[in-house]
Amino acid sequence: MSDAKIKITGLYKAFGPKKVLDGVDLEIGKGESLVVIGGSGTGKSVLIKCVQNLLSADKGSIKIDGKEVVGASNKAIEKQAQKMGMLFQGGALFDSLRVWENVAFGLMKNQKVPPKEAEKRAIEVLHSVGLGADVADLSPAELSGGMQKRVGLARAIATHPEIIFFDEPTTGLDPIMADVINELIITSVKKLGASALTITHDMASARKIADRIAMLYKGKIIWQGTVYDMEHTDNPYVRQFVNGSSQGPITTEAK
Predict the structure, then answer these.
(1) Selecting from 3.90.660.10, 3.40.50.2000, 3.40.50.150, 3.40.50.300, what CATH number does the domain 1-83+163-168+195-255 have?
(2) CB-side neighbour CA atoms (13 Å) of 104
(3) pLDDT 10s digits, 33-56
């Protein structure tokens, strides 16, 4: 892919004797929404953390806009981080900050936007995810789970990032609210023209937001293609996972 925003080649990461990423090769195009599916413990979260440089890869290459991330200087990593936004699985809102301060956190911390201007911009972003100005001064604890997800999304897009990461964005939501969040993700990503990397085991979400889907299993990308390709593949691992079947090559190890 000549217009790759992110290019991952031969990525390895282990924790002691446990290999988590075992030679991952993956590319995400500019403006593309890629969803990585796979069971719990397959290394999806570790993959995202390596791309963000929150974890150091043991071996391999991660290039963002053609620039190497693995082994880069702190200054270079910080510069790349400013291109990124993140919606965390549990929302990960700061309890001690008001809603608008959560949304404006990156604006004030990284872009040095003055508080008054940051608050104004935060309220505008809250509107874009369907929340009114009346929630701006509330604390996260006063919000429902769905509202917290919206605030988390608002924070992820407030700095107009070029790359957005979504970590299990619909976890803990009822099917209707999950669909609302999926729609907001699609709208937000397209409006920004951002590249998106989502990790999930929610197949309804994957089908809705993906331009392309890749499956991670035992530390490797074992399949990738479009949603249509996924629905028609003969790959037994993908078929078992997509259908949620206990029968197939993927086994659940007894603890």
Answers:
(1) 3.40.50.300
(2) 21
(3) 999 999 888 889 999 999 999 899
